[in-house]
Amino acid sequence: MEDCNITKDALQRTSEGQAASAFFRQFKIWKRVCVAGGKARRGLTAQRFWLFAVLLFFSPETSAAPAQGEMQTLILPAAQGMTRARLRYYTPPVDCAGALVLCPGWNGDGAGLIRDSRWQEFARKHKFVLVGLDFASPDADEKSHAGKSEANAYHRTEKGSGRLLFEGLRQIVKKDVPLTLFGFSRGGQFVNSLVARHPERVRVWGCTGSAFTEEFPAKAKIKPPGVVVCGLKDGNTSSSLAMFFSGLRAKWRVCWLGVPGSGHVIEPRAAAWVREFFDAVLSAPADVPGVWVESEERGLEGFIVRSWCPNEKTKKTWEAFR
């Protein structure tokens, strides 16, 4: 069992940038008032000018009160091998149907990922709370992928980080919800570990530019579909393929997407295809049979991959992408 007791005193929410946001809203207000004042000098009566100013000040767009859509932070007590444990998130919808959790690279702050309007739109469409992982471990744990210290880093979810995510989401949403997970680099290793250990909590998952962390269990009763993406110029290509083949050996529905010419980055076109893959999975029954396709991997001569796509449409876009 993971030692991750969370007390109410240890959990606190903060609103990011509220003071700065209020200042800029006020600035915009008075900028508009000044413009309106110029119009008043050109014919608006003083009475109409001040009525306009008052209505503008209290309009929803310019109110100094924090907006529902502002990013918030949930601070958690760090588990074993961690120096920071926070979740960035936007206010969940009232009828929240799940959580979309975006996991950045080593010791990264997921705030940047959840600011992406494309992921925001995806979360709105599926009525998901949008969450960014903001976990960290000592920098020394990152230097050696084979070192003993790395076994305690946050991407090893059995050490407590997985339980922290579950408990944090329960604090945010007030209930357990199915997860949609996407991770880059070390964040993808976190996803790999979490899915392998808690497949029953996951609806669909994706990793990009990630090293292989944990075997997918062949005896799992629930095997959520997923996609492994990697640039073919990324140093993690062989390790990402190892993750993909682990899924195939365990008879999981898993897709490989190699990105020609791309290095260790979140490639925008690949991220867009991942959202298409996720959308197709989420719009179908959990046990959707999907479509298997075989193709020679570009950049890896003579290398044949057998990948799973949720439907014919994603199969065609997968083939066109490559």
Brief summary:
With 322 residues, the protein is of the alpha/beta class. 36% of the residues lie in helices and 20% in strands. It is built from ten helices and eleven strands.
Describe the structure.
The structure is a single chain. The protein has ten helices and eleven strands. By secondary structure, it is an alpha/beta fold. It is globular and about 50 Å long. The strands form two sheets. It has a nine-stranded mixed β-sheet, with helices on both faces. Strands 10-11 form a two-stranded antiparallel sheet. Among the domains are: about 15-55; about 210-320, no CATH class.
Question: Keyphrases for this structure?
Answer:
322 residues, two-stranded antiparallel ribbon, 10 helices, globular, disordered N terminus
Helix content: 25-40%
* CA-based gyration radius: 23 Å
Q: Kindly estimate the percentage of residues that lie in beta strands according to DSSP.
A: 15-25%
Number of helices: 10
Secondary-structure class: alpha/beta
Could you list the spans in which at least 5 consecutive residues all have pLDDT below 50? 1-37, 39-44, 52-68, 144-149
Coarse morphology: globular
Order of helices and strands: EHHEEEHHEHHEHEEHEHEEH
Strand order of the largest sheet: 1-2-3-5-4-6-7-8-9
Main sheet: strands, sense, barrel? 9 strands, mixed
How many E strands? 11
Oligomer: single chain
- The averaged pLDDT comes out at 82
Alpha-carbon distance between the two ends: 43 Å
